[in-house]
Amino acid sequence: MSFWSDKRVLVTGGFGFLGSFVVEKLRERGCKNIFVPRSKDYDLVEIEAVKRLYRDAKPDIVIHLAARVGGIGANRANPGKFFYDNLMMGVQMMEVGRQVGLEKFVAVGTVCAYPKFTPVPFKEDDLWNGYPEETNAPYGLAKKMLLVQAQAYRQQYSFNAIYLLPVNLYGPRDNFDPDSSHVIPALIRKFIEAKTMVSGHQKSVKSDGASCLVPTSDSPPSVVVWGTGKATREFLYVEDCAEAIILATEKYNKPDPINIGAGFEISIKDLVDLIAKLTGFKGEIVWDASKPDGQPRRMLDTIRAEREFGFKAKIGFEEGLKKTIDWYLLTKEK
Predict the structure, then answer these.
(1) Strand partners for 284
(2) Where are the domains of the chain?
(3) Between the CA atoms of 155, 161, 162 and 166, what dihedral angle is there, to the nearest 10 degrees?
(4) Strands 284-288 and 235-237: what pairing?
(5) Residues 122-134: pLDDT tens digits?
(6) How far is CA 32 from its chain centroid?
(7) Judging by DSSP bridges, how do beta strands 203-207 and 210-214 pair with one another?
(8) Side-chain-facing half-sphere of 85: CA atoms under 13 Å
(9) Nearest by Cα to 295 from 122, 178, 124
(10) Which residues contact residue 198 at a Cβ distance below 8 angstroms, ignoring those fewer than 6 apart?
(11) What confidence score (pLDDT) does residue 297 get?
(12) 115 DSSP assignment
């Protein structure tokens, strides 16, 4: 608690999915001076906006979470924008922080920075052993450059920047927009919509990972899921990730990247079956193998995070999914 009591903390992306939980945890730890910029007031792609943000916030610590993100579909549709916006936001935030004598910069990267065929579990030392999976490589490489910058600035300027690599996140407040959502919120929304739509009405809604098709009244609803279901993923409950970021900010001051994950692996097929069960969906699940699977396997080695700052995920996967589904249903009722 005393670590945060006199710190001025700037959290970019603090109104977002992960950021909102990070801000809550900062307040729980007694941080009184938290500055959370809105994108409409500070376009971090523009250098003058970044300089103005530093002048207004006067931070001791920056936790940089702001990012242009989306699932497979959004990455395929916007590779240039995802590369440029994420690169410029991160590079400029760190550079201006160095110029003003910032105490610490926490760069939050992405599991998409890992090579496509990284051996499982992904170890931090494997980060440079190949090219990322093609559909999200522009985004992953843009975020990966923050690690290069952090290490270069530490070497030349003794600038205290750390780099964290979270796995795929999920939980309440996630993005359920069908045009840009990741696989878990996409599936939750599609199963619930397919289950609750009035029979006899036909609708097709596309999103990353799943599209919902409701046929005629004489056949049950079905959900079409992208890919083959063979790919595997690891998922971390958003509140666990926020805790990891806070712990790393408090305790970690080294150049090496750190994985942030839950340390388990689940196939997309098993994930789909589990979400169908938890949402009560009993219709048909159709696999569209013409759509990409993305990275073949994904699971992080989390030993370094536990050793360096004592982080270990607490929320079980099924428990976290139930919390996410309950939150989504609650928001639909409002």
Answers:
(1) 222
(2) 2-173+234-265+297-315
(3) -130
(4) unpaired
(5) 999 999 999 999 9
(6) 26
(7) antiparallel
(8) 14
(9) 122
(10) none
(11) 93
(12) B
Tracing tokens 């992405």 back to the chain, one arrives at: 110
* Catalytic member of 42, 54, 114, 139: 139
State the virtual CA torsion across 241, 243, 249, 253 in degrees, nearest 10: -70
Q: What secondary structure does DSSP assign to 93-124, as a single string? A: HHHHHHHTT-SEEEEE--GGGSBTTPPSSBPG
What H or E segment, with its residue span, contains residue 311?
none
What's the whole-number mean pLDDT along residues 296-311? 97
Of these ranges, 204-218, 240-254, 290-304, the one predicted with the greatest mean pLDDT is 240-254
Round to whole Å and give the CA distance between 250 and 190.
Answer: 40
CB atoms under 10 Å from CB of 252, counted, come to: 21
Q: What is the mean pLDDT of residues 227-247?
A: 97
In the structure, what pLDDT confidence band is assigned to residue 74 with cuts at 50, 70 and 90? confident
**Pair type for strands 210-214 and 222-226:** antiparallel
Kindly list the distances between the CA atom of residue 298 and the CA atoms of 109, 217, 270, in Å, as whole numbers in the listed order: 15, 40, 14
Measured distance CA(61)–CA(9) in Å, rounded? 5
Residue with tokens 């199963």: 191
Contacting residues for 114 by C-beta, under 8 A, at least 6 apart:
122, 126, 127, 132, 140, 165, 295, 298
Under CATH, which architecture does the 2-173+234-265+297-315 domain have? Answer: 3-Layer(aba) Sandwich (3.40)
Q: Taking a C-beta distance cutoff of 8 angstroms, is the pair 301, 125 a contact?
A: no
Question: Percentage of residues in the chain with pLDDT exceeding 90?
Answer: 85
139 classed as catalytic: yes
Amino acid at 200: G
Q: How far apart are CA 267 and CA 90, in angstroms?
A: 32
Measured CA to CA in angstroms, residue 76 lies from 49, 291, 292 at distances of: 28, 11, 10
Return the CA Rg of the chain.
20
* Residue 216 confidence (pLDDT) above 70: no
Q: How far apart, in whole angstroms, are the C-alpha atoms of residue 183 and residue 210?
A: 8
* Whole-number Å distance between alpha carbons of 137 and 112: 7
CA angle 183, 184, 187 (to 5 degrees): 80
pTM equals: 0.91
Tokens representing residue 301 in the block: 């080695």
